[in-house]
């Protein structure tokens, strides 16, 4: 049976259902996810937080098709990732998912514009000029398009990375600690754009972060502990995020 990879826009962009993920065996076995359930609404910025070892990065990797679940179900739209082989997951990541990493991951020999267009270039396609111009305008890089990464600040490099993640109009963008290598001013600019991408461009974004200030930019924050989603905050504030995290850490001691 062939599973379709046709993008499907639904009210729920992605979902984890009772997902289990274990690393190691026997005495060194670690259950990173222990029946995790999570629904990601389309067109929103969702932040994922939790104490160290709570499973937040593992959950993101499973939702993004970078890792496989041992049990449970993972859906992207109506596509069940747990039924796909590695080749099909690779195709899905290329065509329907965008990524933003803490370390930027730009190609040093390419200009900013070439880095932004890279996902489409690899697919043998050219960017939509109107969409490219809109992204460049929103991230404020119009005067930096011919610069290479070494000629850009950290904040500018990360804005290039965010534009690159959006250029193919993916179903969902996963951002892993996107401000971890940035100062507060540059970080705020990147976070502001991610929020703009969700609220104004209709993009679904999932951001893993340990920073309560970063999480406060989200439409919703979900909290993990011991491999499960244990709480969530709609319309979060930094103070509310800090209080929730403090409670989770205290409960785990």
UniProtKB/TrEMBL annotation:
InterPro entries per record: AAA+_ATPase, ABC_transporter-like_ATP-bd, ABC_transporter-like_CS, ABC_transpr_LolD-like, MacB-like_ATP-bd, P-loop_NTPase
ABC transporter domain span: 14-251
Highest taxon in the source lineage: Bacteria
Keywords associated with the record: ATP-binding, Nucleotide-binding, Transport
Keyword Nucleus attached: no
GO MF terms, alphabetically ordered: ATP binding; ATP hydrolysis activity; transmembrane transporter activity
Gene3D superfamilies for this protein: P-loop containing nucleotide triphosphate hydrolases
GO CC annotation: membrane protein complex; plasma membrane
Protein name: ABC transporter ATP-binding protein
Organism of derivation: Georgenia yuyongxinii
């Amino acid at each position: 049976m062939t599973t379709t990879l046709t993008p499907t826009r639904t009210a729920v962009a992605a979902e984890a259902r009772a997902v289990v993920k274990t690393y190691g065996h026997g005495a060194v076995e670690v259950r990173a996810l222990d029946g995790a359930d999570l629904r990601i609404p389309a067109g929103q910025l969702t932040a994922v937080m939790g104490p160290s070892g709570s499973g937040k990065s593992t959950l993101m990797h499973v939702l993004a098709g970078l890792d496989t679940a041992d049990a449970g179900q993972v859906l992207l739209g109506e596509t069940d990732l747990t039924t796909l082989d590695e080749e099909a997951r690779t195709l899905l990541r290329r065509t329907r998912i965008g990524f933003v990493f803490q370390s930027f991951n730009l190609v040093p020999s390419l200009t900013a514009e070439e880095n932004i267009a890279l996902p489409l270039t690899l697919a043998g396609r050219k960017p939509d000029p109107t969409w490219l111009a809109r992204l460049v305008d929103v991230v404020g890089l119009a005067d930096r398009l011919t610069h290479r990464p070494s000629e850009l600040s950290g904040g500018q490099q990360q804005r290039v990375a965010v534009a690159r993640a959006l250029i193919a109009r993916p179903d969902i963008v996963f951002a892993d600690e996107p401000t971890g290598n940035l100062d507060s001013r540059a970080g705020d600019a990147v976070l502001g754009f991610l929020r703009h991408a969700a609220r104004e461009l209709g993009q679904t974004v999932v951001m893993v972060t340990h920073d309560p200030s970063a999480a406060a930019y989200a439409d919703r924050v979900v909290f993990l502990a011991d491999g499960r989603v244990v709480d969530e905050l709609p319309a979060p504030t930094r103070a509310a995020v800090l209080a929730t995290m403090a409670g989770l850490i205290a409960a785990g001691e």
